[in-house]
Design brief:
The chain contains two helices and 14 strands. With about 240 residues, it is mainly beta. The strands form two sheets. Strands 2, 3, 4, 5, 6, 7, 8, 9, 10, 11, 12 and 13 form a twelve-stranded antiparallel β-sheet that branches. Strands 1-14 form a two-stranded antiparallel sheet. Strand 12 (about 190-200) and strand 13 (about 205-225) form a beta hairpin. It is elongated and about 70 Å long.
Length: about 240
Amino acid sequence: MKKTPASILIMLMILIILNVGAAGSDSKTIRLPDNYKGTAGIKVNGVYHYLSSELEPEAATEYSYRETFDQEAQINALLGNNYLVYIPSIEKPLVTGTVEYNHHTYQNGRKIITNIAPPQNINAQNFREAVGLYLNPVKKTYTISLVLGADGESTTFDKATGEVKSRTKKRFELEKIELTLPLPRDLSVLKGRKLITGAVDTPNDSRRVLKNQKTIEVTWEFIASAESVEIPPQIIEQIEQDAK
């Protein structure tokens, strides 16, 4: 059996080291899905009931105020990748779905303000409706955001007679949502459901709160495309710098 010359062994070792070094220098390059397609939904329910003292000419009077909140939206979206940020494509703004908004204010059981946007379709060309995903491979997280609105009417009623005082066309913003979650190993599906509970409002000292609660339910499921894009090392390095 012939022995391999030492010079060849040395050359082989050098080549192995160079290959390992080259692989290591490009180790920060990652591939992500070219786009995500899926759905997101939001439901909001809330009640804010409080007693408030108001000064009348002769004495202080305590009034009962009650506000109710109902919002719901369900959207479908095609989100294109722009360096870890997935947003509706400018060339093909494919965002469709439905949205509605209701906010009623009562004084002593009598309706005084209604803000209503009836169920309506989201205009795919209207960027006031927005949904987005942000992937952070350094922190191993992803963030989903929803900023939705609806066109409706605000009506004010006379406190004494209950008759309509004014009506105004208005645009209402739904609850803004931004959730940051662990990034799964398998990026082919980003899916989840989150229930958030809390207060509708932070009352001031003059209010005696009887009920103050809000529930937000967020659901989402986005499926990755088979096509992928390469994120260059400089982008990953920038993310690492920003994370420090």
